[in-house]
C-alpha cells in the first residue's frame, strides 16, 4: 500500500472524508467543513480591507462563455459537460431497456447549455465585460465555487469536485502584478500562522498535447504562474495549495475588458484550494482538531 492510499484510508476511517465509490468525489464531515469555514474567515481577515466585490456563482456555467474561453483548446481532458435526456417517449423506452441490460444508456443524452465550472474565475470575465468599461483604478473580485476537473486519483488532494476561493484583479500591468505579489506574501504569512511549511515555485498548467508543451514552457519562462506548495501526500512532490496567475492582457483582449482610458485590462487571479489546505492541516497537525497546536487553533477559531 502506498502513502497516498493510506492517508485517504485514514481520512475515510476518521469520517473526515466520506467515500462515494468514485476516486476524487468525496463527502465531507462537519469537522472538515468547519476547518474550511475557519480558513475562509482567515482569508477574509487578510483580504477584507481591499474592498473586493464578492460574487458567488453556481458550479455550472454558461456553455457559450465556456466555449469562448478557449478551455477546450487547452484542457479538453479536464472538462466536464452537463448532458440531459431530451428525447421522445419512444426514446425513453429504449433508454430504460439499455439500462436494464447494462448497455450504455448515455449515448442519447444531449448537451445542455450548462458546463461544469473549471475554475472559479471563468464566469467572472464575461460578467464584468457586460458592465462596460472598468474604472482606471481597476476592479477586484472575491469568488468561491465548486470546480470540476476530470482527474480521478487516489490522492485525496486531487479531487474531481473541489472548492476554489479566488481573488481576481483587473487593471494595469503594474496594478495586477502588485496584487499578485501581495497575495504571494500573504499566502506565505497565512500558512505560517496555521503552522504549515511552504515553498513557492514557478509552475505551468497541464496544456493538452504536443502543442501544449510549448504553451507550458512559455508560461514558465514568463513567470506567469506561481504555486504555493505544501507536502501532503509526498515530500518529494509537494501539493499546490494556492496558485498565482498573471494572464497579461489575454483575458482582457478575449472578453473586451477595457479601462476607462481605452486600454485593455490586464488580469491576475489568486486561487486557494480549500480542500487541499484543509488536508494539509489534517496531515500536519493530525486528524483530531482538538489536538492541534493552540496557536493554530487560535489563528483559525480565535
Ligand atoms: P495541480 O498542478 O496540482 O494540478 P493546478 O495547477 O491545476 O494544480 P490551478 O488550476 O492553479 O491548480 O487551480 C487553483 C487551485 O485549486 C490550486 O492551487 C489547488 O490548490 C486547487 N486545485 C486544483 N486542482 C485541484 C484538484 N484536482 N483537487 C483539489 N484542489 C485542486
Ligand atoms: Zn482564476
Ligand atoms: Mg491541475
From TrEMBL:
Question: InterPro entries of this UniProt entry?
Answer: aa-tRNA-synth_II/BPL/LPL
State the source organism's domain of life.
Bacteria
Q: Which SUPFAM superfamilies match?
A: Class II aaRS and biotin synthetases
Gene Ontology MF annotations: ligase activity
Alphabetically list the UniProt keywords.
Ligase
What sections of the protein cross the membrane? none
Q: EC annotation?
A: 6.2.1.n2
Q: What name does this protein carry?
A: Amino acid--[acyl-carrier-protein] ligase
What lineage does the source organism belong to? Bacteria, Pseudomonadati, Pseudomonadota, Alphaproteobacteria, Hyphomicrobiales
